[in-house]
Amino acid sequence: MKKFKIIVLAKQVPDTRNVGKDAMKEDGTVNRAALPAIFNPEDLNALELALRLKDRYPGSTVSLLTMGPPRAAEIIREGLYRGADTGYLLTDRAFAGSDTLATSYALSRAILKMGDFDFILAGRQAIDGDTAQVGPQVAEKLGIPQVTYAEEILEIKKNTVTVKRRLEKGVEVVESVFPVLITVTGTAPACRPRNAKLIMKYKRSTTISERQNISEDYISIYDDRPFLNIPEWNVGDIDAEPERLGLSGSPTKVKKIENVVFQAKEAKVLQDDDKSIDWLMKELIRNHTLG
Amino acid sequence: MKTSKSEKVNNLFVICELENGKVAEISQELLTKGRKLADQLGCSMEALIIGHDLQEPEKEAFEYGADVVWLADDPRLEHYTTLPYTRIAVELFKQEKPQVALLGATSFGRDLGPRVSSALGSGLTADCTALEIGEHTDKKAGKTYKNLLLQIRPAFGGNIIATIINPGHKPQMATVREGVMKKEKIRKPKDGEVKFIDVERFVRAEDFVVHIIERHMEESGVNLKGAPVIVSGGYGVGSKENFEILFRLAGLIGAEVGASRAAVDAGFADHDRQIGQTGVTVRPKLYIACGISGQVQHIAGMQESAMVISINNDPEAPINKIADYAIVGNLEDVIPKMIKYYKQNSK
Ligand SMILES: Cc1cc2nc3c(=O)[nH]c(=O)nc-3n(C[C@H](O)[C@H](O)[C@H](O)COP(=O)(O)OP(=O)(O)OC[C@H]3O[C@@H](n4cnc5c(N)ncnc54)[C@H](O)[C@@H]3O)c2cc1C
Questions:
Q1: Which of A180, B131, B192, B229 is a good FRET partner for A137, with 20 to 30 A between their CA atoms?
Q2: What ligand 1 atom has the least distance to the C-alpha of A16?
Q3: What confidence tens digit (pLDDT) does each residue in B257-296 have?
Q4: Which CATH superfamily is domain B229-346 in?
């Protein structure tokens, strides 16, 4: 039976449902620390497709890769609890302010460092920017094909994979050689829940930075159980050129941020009583807004 | 020593999308906008059209203002696949060095755009709601950039609009959602020049490693863009079942049903009903917003409605600022009353 090496790109995102006014910084970037952070929803769909491949082809491995602040290690643990084998955290101040191009450069460097792979799975897009750009930009940097908007992996043959894509106006089934990068839509199956045994196994998994503050007594467990270490990489670890990262590596710049002042229309306020609604419907019919 | 005489004015490109061999509506919208930007920049607008079994799409491109149409016609290019289309765009852009390149924020543009930008190392801004030409002074470097593409989009969180620029990189690339720009034919179909791309020169055999095995495309039954009246539901609707009363009202008054992203994300409504920055942009004569708070990304897609009625139990909801009528109350009470009194009064 074949065994595959699968990489899942995942991002910790601020929950866009809970954005307060003070969540923006002066330079136009988001103050993520001020928001609840979650596993980007479509990245969870990607993880599920990866885990299904692993179920079908036992012995396959699923490795998460995420770039973000130190606390993004949280989503690696989330992935481990659901069945991923390892997870890598790319974190460095030099990554701060990266646009999608600089991000894809950093991710592609890290992927090369991770070694051989057969499939890279990623969410179609992250809910904080909705750009859907990072997946294809990584694929281009690695010089591999891409299949975006994937909903299901149908079949794997000797060196091809068949994927069902969900587009605006229908579905498309494509066959691609691999290695290939596949981005997954929210219409793909939801991710399986955390597994109680895996929570037990991985609850002490940490990055080296997270271990700075824990008590001496625990440190030795990381020597005995190396799988509890979440590898943490910085710019030097991935041999990246610093000028291609962060603000300097980002061709897009925020020129200005404006508060929107809607031309306030002086709304006519109505209550929900019968008389008001009756009046409104009459008005709409009278002025031919409704036929 | 620098001479300026050999420096040609770089052009603006629109990468067109085809539908049945003709220029798709989203591309017609982009060409219309591109024409205005090109006039401001004093450059020509060129359309890149890739495909097969073409139904004279160049004529339409000219009608919408293209000066030049680059055609890549090859049986292997009949349907979009990433690699060969990327290669053609990248090689053509290396040759022509456009200053601006626009694409639709469709599954086509969102697959192709980032690939091209990654190959060229250029900036790409997704889902712009406005595009303008302007200048920018980098105070630190003491440098002023003229004739930049200002890529304007609502930004994450709060009521904020960001202007994005790519001062140091060309082409400046942007995607725009369908319906955001208005289309307008401005010329006769024959006013332009066709340049044929030698496909063999640009693509390699190894670009054809992804094959389409099956395609089922259908026109979505939802036509938000053409609807004169839209009844739109937000997270406040509460459930998929509750959306039924919106459909009842819409059926009665001849409206289409739209939704906010929060309602789509929660599974209350289908994705093709989403209105806003990352959905459809609409301009109906009446927009009824039910249980929608009115965040900037939503407003971006409906602010040009001729009349807005909001139904919200929060009198302070931001949507009320742009509403003509703000009904303060629970939508599950208000909508049945609207149905009742419409029936009574329309007879
Ligand atoms: C990159 C990006 C792109 C986005 N693109 C879009 C987009 O294209 N379209 C879009 O819509 N959003 C978009 N958003 C999301 C947007 O920021 C908001 O989160 C979203 O519009 C909120 O939807 P809502 O108004 O339905 O929900 P909420 O903000 O939760 O508002 C619900 C409203 O319902 C009211 N309500 C509750 N119960 C009732 C009741 N019983 N009766 C009456 N009123 C009630 C509440 O008072 C509240 O005002 C985007 C966000 C990001 C970050």
A1: B131
A2: 53
A3: 999 999 999 999 999 999 999 999 999 999 999 999 998 8
A4: TPP-binding domain (3.40.50.1220)
